[in-house]
Structure formats: C-alpha cells, structure tokens
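Structural prep section.
Before we set up the soaks we want a predicted structure of the protein with zinc ion in place, mainly to decide which crystallisation condition to try first. Input record follows.
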Amino acid sequence: MSNMIVDGFAFCRLGEQREGVTPVADLPRVAAEAAQPAGEIRWSFHGGRHSRGYLQLTMVVDGEVALVCQRCLLPFSYGLDTHSLLVLASDEADADATEEALDDERIDVIVGSAALDLLQLVEDEVLLALPLSPRHPKCPDGGSVPAPEKPDSPFAVLQKLKN
Ligand SMILES: [Zn+2]
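Run finished without errors. Recording the tokens verbatim:
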C-alpha cells in the first residue's frame, strides 16, 4: 500500500487525487466494531478549492462492513456509501472561524496538516457511517417484525410545510 500520509494543504492546492481499496482488516477501529474483519472499503480523495477560496478535500467512501443484526443477531453485510466535503483549516481557532464563516452543515472543517493521514480520515468516516443499532432491512428468519419507520427527511418535512 502506498504511503497514505500527504501534505493536506499541498494536496488541495495542487488539485491532487488519490484512490484505493483497503481491507476492513487493515482498519483496526472498524474491524473492532465488525462481526468479522471481512470486506473492503473503497475510497477516493480529490483536492481542490471551495468557491470561497478555502482548501477543500472531497472524500468518497463506500464498501461493506460485516455487522451483527440487533434484531436476529445474525451477521450481515452493511453497505455504506458516503460523500463528504472537508475544508482544511490551519489550526483550531481558524477551524472555528471557518466553520462560522461557511455556516454550512454539509461541510466539515478539519484542522489540516502537512502530514495528513488519509487512511485515518477514511477510518473515521466509516465509523461515523456505521449505525448504532444495525439491523437487516428484512431479517432472514421471515422478518415478521416490521422495521422501525424512518423519520422524515428534512426535505420531506419542508415539503409537508409547503402543502
Ligand atoms: Zn436480522
């Protein structure tokens, strides 16, 4: 595996890209949450600039993690597919100021580094994407217990308010 530590600022400034596939077994914090350290995580990073000039990293992560269903207690393959925008700040104070200036929940402001560990970012992202209480969409033993209703998305709520 190539070196996953990059100069985060230069990576964005130069518009660099990197992508790869990492076995779950190589992500120790994810493997610890998984039923089995099986499956792979595909990831990609694109460096660039936010329309307001901030250095920005686009991260796309997808793959499968084996989790134990909390309803039937059987392992199943949980698919994740995330797309994140990370804006790099120079330090904690800059991160706070940037967060406030951007005021955009879709963007995560992180403290950048000249030794930014991309694999660490991937691992953080996978951990965040894992459900607290994983369940099969439909359990294999017949699945007579209905899945809990999904809460309305903010968009659906807005739509209802309009009508
Ligand atoms: Zn189940």
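Observations: The pocket of zinc ion is lined by residues 69, 71-72, 74, 135-136, 139 (CB under 6 Å).
Flagged for discussion at group meeting.
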